[in-house]
TrEMBL record:
Binding partners and assembly: Monomer. Interacts with TFEB. Interacts with the 'Thr-172' phosphorylated form of PRKAA2. Interacts with CREBBP.
SUPFAM superfamilies membership: Acetyl-CoA synthetase-like
Family of this protein: Belongs to the ATP-dependent AMP-binding enzyme family.
EC numbers: 6.2.1.1
Domain of life: Eukaryota
Protein name as annotated: Acetyl-coenzyme A synthetase
UniProtKB keywords: ATP-binding, Ligase, Lipid metabolism, Nucleotide-binding
Organism name: Ciona savignyi (Pacific transparent sea squirt)
Amino acid sequence: MAGETKTYLPPSCVSDVAHVKTMEQYADMYKQSVEDPGKFWGKIAENFYFKKHHEGEFFDYNFDISKGDVYIRCMEGATTNICYNCLDRNINNGHGDKIAFYWEGNDPMDSTSITYKKLLAEVCKFSNVLKSLGVKKGDRVAIYMPIMELVVAMLACARIGAVHSIVFGGFSAESLSGRILDAKCDILVTADGVYRGTKLINLKEIADEALELCTQGGHTVSSCVVVSHVTASIESCDGRHTMVWNKDVDRSWKDLMQSASSECDPEWMGSEDPLFILYTSGSTGIPKGVLHHVTGYMLYAATTHKYSFDYHPDDVYFCTADIGWITGHTYITYGPLLNCATSVMVAFEGVPLFPDPSRYWAIVDKYQVSKFYTAPTAIRALMKFGEEPIKKYSRSSLRVLGTVGEPINPEAWMFYHTVIGNSKCSIVDTFWQTETGGHVLTPLPGCTPTKPGSATFPFFGIVPAILSDEGVELEGPAEGYLVFKQPWPGIMRTVYGDHQRFERTYFTKFPGYYVPGDGCKRDEDGYIWITGRIDDMINVSGHLLSTAEVESSLIEHNLVAEAAVVGKPHSVKGECLYCFVTILEGSEFTQDLVKELKEKVRHHIGAFGTPDFIQNAPGLPKTRSGKIMRRVLRNVAKGNRDLGDVSTMADASVVEVLFKNRVEE
């Protein structure tokens, strides 16, 4: 039973200096945050600069679609600028010379740092560059690169009121173009390329292909600003990388920045003005443009970063994510900068095996990192190499170890705690989504007794509930649908350009509740455990992939008649893609076909979406109404013959064939 799991108390070195030292203090703060949110968040808002303060209620909202349109408004009427609060405010408070970021490139010899004052100057320059290219408040700007200039570009957008749409650098040209087309971005900011380990990713080539697809789709991007990252100059070739240059569209970042002024007044934004769009996979296969707005997101990013990691001014904080994901938005850029933090930022995302598996710990010792945030996938991958690469370095500066992206299995939790943390760190297993803006379930490092694998308790302002299939709230130990009963400042406001989809996705299944799409269970001690997705989504290495999106890629092949995709447990990724493919009558299922299909998915989605397994499925298990029985397919993928109730299956004979054709690891 989950409730019988051993409980781990916060170490005294963390709790003695923590912002929240006891569960009684947490309970008092939590009570105020949910019963009087205006007072709780209003006090926090006093730490930030507002050009104009709001009047009236802190929140105005409707979660019940049966009573009208769903909406959330926070501090309506106030005006501020999140870039100003990230940079100018901290400089005005005397922290201009403090390091904002230590930057580590793919090569350990490639590193630099930037102060708050220098970062502001660069942001103002690029703000003026964007203005010179015709960008104004409300315009959308796409950004496609994983390097230091990305932070400059996103903050510049926020400074002038443009809406940034950052696309993960591992996405394909087709995925990039789809996101540009949906948001009608006028500008693309990218780099020539970037190295991941020894492999060069030609970002400019992918961007060029994406822009051509946009043109074919009826939308022309006016300018593509290019950072020369792996080439010495635009026209050069250093033997490793050549860049094609389109003089009608392409603009050199370096040239534009050289002539730009380092002063730019901020655009004062309304609280409910949009800040950024970030696309996340949808169960229909079409990515959703999650839209976050200024003030609520600002307050929530800052507050969750401060309390979830127990951040203090002398800490050095290291989040290993890519800024192309929400973790990088909230916990590399906005949250840390709003708290005047010093952070480590890396140009590689995922498992750091280059040049060797000790890369993280070399960085931790180099900068004396005290707060560290990574994915369970990375921890599981590092476990394969044993303790030696970790124990080469002292890691004595570490105090808080966080995890993100998926529930962490107890074995990885224990390795994180005992080996990486030397049993002297608090483990913070955070649950949240792109849609929530920040952590919604998380331990607090200085006060929460933790259980390996549990996200524990709600963050301030979060009111979770567990519902049955009938929508009845379950009390005590229970398992069912995780829902949230009232808004918090950081919750998304809509799906860009499609508010009906926003309502349909999150509010129609159980009117009156926000439904994140995850199941959970609550043990007898009140701890919450995430049990996985309840829709057709698969969590691969912390990245949500839509089964419909993968299936549509497979079906595009001219030999494929039908396809079904399920998740299969994976020792490193958590889950991997297991694909069942029915080919046309008279065609042959070959290894060449498997390679073609994997490449097709890779092209449509990106390398991280490549299936691990593709098996021949002459027939798929379906109900008499024609619905694919994915539960059965998941059991086939795992080799589990205990299929449960199959009484509704139209043709049970297909199952034995599937087991016979099952792809072994």
